[in-house]
Amino acid sequence: MSDTSDNRDQDFDIGSKTPNFLINEKSPYLLQHAYNPVQWYPWDEAAFERSRAENKPIFLSIGYSTCHWCHVMEKESFEDPEVAGLMNATFVCIKVDREERPDIDSVYMAVCQAITGRGGWPLTILMTPDKEPFFAATYIPKKSRFGTAGMLDLIPHIAKVWTQQQGDILQTARELKAALTPEMVQASAKSTGTELNENTLHRGYSQLLSAFDWHAGGFGRAPKFPSPHNLTFLLRYWHRTGKLEALQMVTKTLDAMRRGGIYDHVGFGFHRYSTDGQWLVPHFEKMLYDQAMLIMAYTEGFQVTGIEDHRHIAEEIIEYVLRDMCSAEGAFYCAEDADSEGVEGKFYLWKKEEIYDILPAEAADLVCKVYDVSSEGNYKEEISGVSTRQNILHLARPMQEVAQELGLSSDELKAKLEPSRKLLFAAREKRVHPSKDDKVLTDWNGLMIAALGKASRAFERPEYAQTASKAADFILEHMSSRDGRLLHRYRDGEASISGFLEDYAFLVWGLIELYQATFKKKYLEHALRLNALQIQDFMDDEGGFFHTAKGSETLLFRKKEVYDGAMPSGNSVSVLNLLRLSRLTGDTHLEEKAYASMKAFSGQIDAMPMAYSQFLHSLDFIAGPAYEVVIAGDPDDANTREMISLAGRSFLPNMVLLLQGKDNIEELAPYTKDMSAADGNATVYICQGLSCSTPITKTSEMMKMLKPPENR
Predict the structure, then answer these.
(1) Model-level pTM?
(2) What residues contact residue 551 under an 8 Å CB cut-off, 6+ apart?
(3) pLDDT (0 to 100) of residue 386
């Protein structure tokens, strides 16, 4: 946290450019607010001491650096001397970066949702000096409008009530805390129900089918989030049942997102979500976790269908991440903002005449035809009260349809467009870029490591695994404490903040994928070590994992979350990690802990399976068939490489893969001790359902054994 040696009791001069107490922080989001006239504190004891000493309530504001409405509230209120004066006189004000402190965000977001029925960022919480909330909201305008109290009216009201009826507020806060604790803890920790089974998978599929938009792809109405774990579950369901609709939902959504404005057709990568139901108008920020999860979805889509466009999109996302989101040390940054020059999306929008200024007329004609560019535009931009119409590049029609109309193949059309794309990209690079949140988070890096490991195997691109290795090595070396536990955030040469559940779960996932892409034993060793620490520090005796470790800062309650939202939950990923590590090593105790977690959350999941689609990956694994595959042979041998390659290219979601070669893997997986290359030839051992097949030396026999029964 920040240096607390400065004089925190000093008066704050609203008219000066004196920084507030965020100036020594590492978070780009907190630093954005360091020169606000609001006397912001970071979340530390100094703020609460002042709150108690001066008998002032806390104004807690939680957001993140690429949040558009966080910027709006800052510009309207936190940079305004009148509002800042009221805030400083009434409250002790605390700023929190939700990406740095997901524990704080998670607890108070639950409070906001319980009080108001909704949530989002910026998150605004008013609370007592003892951290007990009594008011919650998201964005608050400066002035009251449409029945919503603005800051200029709300703050004087709170000041009056706090002064005249403080006892009532404190009592309300205590009652709210008492009501929230059982609801938030018991609902996630003790909601056991009927045992989850294959029928749960069928119900989850049916619910997704009911919510599917057959016109535009995706689920539900606007706004639409990619939710890649819905798609990867449906691929597993198709693999299990052969139901064509499951596969069609995936391919339609992958294609619709790739064609829409949610995809950056010039510089690659996906924006966070679509504000409309057609994937046209995005919320323009780009998040690392979205890129990672979408790489996995498009990679698995390619493995299942062989559609080359799926592979190309995954490779383009990786190109974007390595170009724009990779640190010099090889780790990955968090996000890029939606705004530039104070305008959302400005960096990504095009006027038709701009395209003709940059490209030769014939090339510009083609770009405008393919990407639906017009003089009228498809996006209304507001700058200083003046409206202009611009274009979000998108494919209004499938590429194949346009190519056919022009007498070209899809590949020929793409080849004709590529020089124009490069010229547009070069021109766009001269614009003012959105700001970049250049902190490194362990959990989001874990997701990207997993994605690169999967893509490396599926596309036979070893350089992806090398890139993932560099990121993993950086985290293991620079984002671990002296006792080997993980730290959450790294920036500007400093690693800090004790790791949360997702840091362990997502990095273990990444290390499992990285082991299977490189067969470097050290990555499996680290996965097992970190998984053991996770069990020791986070696991509840009743099953499942808390978000924070034992001994962490005490907030309102210690939360356990399993809902799979924009990102999969730490608990959902952890269950599959436990199952895969159990099968990789033969340690059945890990599988028992997975079962305990499934039992702990069974009531919630049974009530609405589609809301836990990442968790359903684990249930699919348990329902089987699942396989432990050991390839015994020299990794430099052509036959061994062919077996490894075939396993990596194929969609085998419930397979774990070990190489018994140069590294002696039997130390970690004792059951492989007697598995060796038969007569010096590469040999495959396939174990399923507590029994192993006879050794196999032919790849055709290997794949026959691994196909699900209905597809053999």
Answers:
(1) 0.90
(2) none
(3) 67
